[in-house]
Fold:
Amino acid sequence: MKNTPDNPFNEPLPAKALDRRHILVAGVTLLASLGSIYAWSFFTRPLQEAYHWSNAQISIVFSLAVAGLGFSALYSGPLVAKLGSRRLMKRSAVFFVSGYVIAAGGLYLGSGVVGSVDSPLISWLSFLILAFGYGVIGGIGLGTGYVTAVSTVAGWYPDRKGFATGLIVMGFGMGALFMSKVFAPFSMYISGGNVANAFLFIAAVYAVIMTLACRFIYSPHAAVTVLQRPTIADTFAHQTQTRVRLWLVCFFYSVAGLGIISLLSPLMQNLMATRNPSMGTAELAAAGATLIAFASIGNSVGRLFWAWISDIIGRVNAFTILLGTSAVAYLLMPHITTPFLFAALICYAIACYGGAFGTIPSLISDLFGPKRMSSMHGLVLTGWAVAGLTAPPLFGYMNDTIPQHAATVAYYICAGSLVLSTGLVYTFRTLHRECVQHAPVKGSEAPGPLRGAMAREAAK
Structure:
């Protein structure tokens, strides 16, 4: 099919009017598939037992996936408006599935197909192929699909933007929970405990799921009947410092979220051991695992809840509340000695972290318009990637060097980061209020308050 004004992306046009709920379901399915990569820690122990790699080596693979998501989103964001949603989602599926296949090839290499993992050369070559496949190639698929799916759904739901983007981002979090608790154990079971075989099985299943889901993805240009009137945001000339502020908002709340997530189990185990020194290692590990599971649920639910709330009370108000209250939660944590109350505060803080991810696509769309949303979203996600490469190693270093004070210092770093993020997001209140106004009729002049907001923004 050739490009036309009504079909600029060469996508198949539907024969009848589309039900946008089908696109939402397809988007949630695709992001749930991509989110499975965050269950990487499930494979840590099997890989260590089979290949004798260190914790540091195995963690590098996940760090590469985090970086791959953020920086490939930066590259892919501008392509959404040029190539269309379906083409990019197919590209995402190819990279994501290929990542598992390449990783499996590396694991087969180290399992004796070509040489023995006992050989240092074979061990390192096997590890490098695993890291390249799962981390680099899979990470590219992650970033491409994440920014494409979110911007696509936002374009189809301009009237319920927060709820729709929150739901699809929640799918990303629930995909990791499903993978770690259901799909990964099942894959390892049917593959006889062989991680390489499990990766191939996972790749085959997700190849089918993602291929089918891509058939229901249409770019928002086909949503003529549901699109609202253009807003000022569509053409507003933002200054560079506006983009910098948004990047810093994402960076600072990601420092708090990713940093504390990396310490969830040790924090809970230390608190339980202090309360009850007679607890054994297995009991402490179970307590830490339980907190991780509940925090994961909170992360997923928070993405939908806060994004939905932002439709009601406004993006900036929702952000201010969720970031500010989670900062208070971190300030209280050093003084909490009750495990249940500590777990509740942690889960709330992580739910707010998820809420920030669920809400920021809508804030970006409100400020920059749907056409520029994907490119700006990709830029903002690099803030999360940088935080992912800095906060967990920093918190881990503190846990190694000042174990007695690491938790308290971590709480205060998280609280300070969230206070900074809250202050930065609050600076968008006037600009956001003006950008969401309907664009003036062609040939007319912008209303007085809007002209004033434009002048203030240009002067910053």
About this structure: The chain has 16 helices and no strands. The chain has a mean pLDDT of 83.
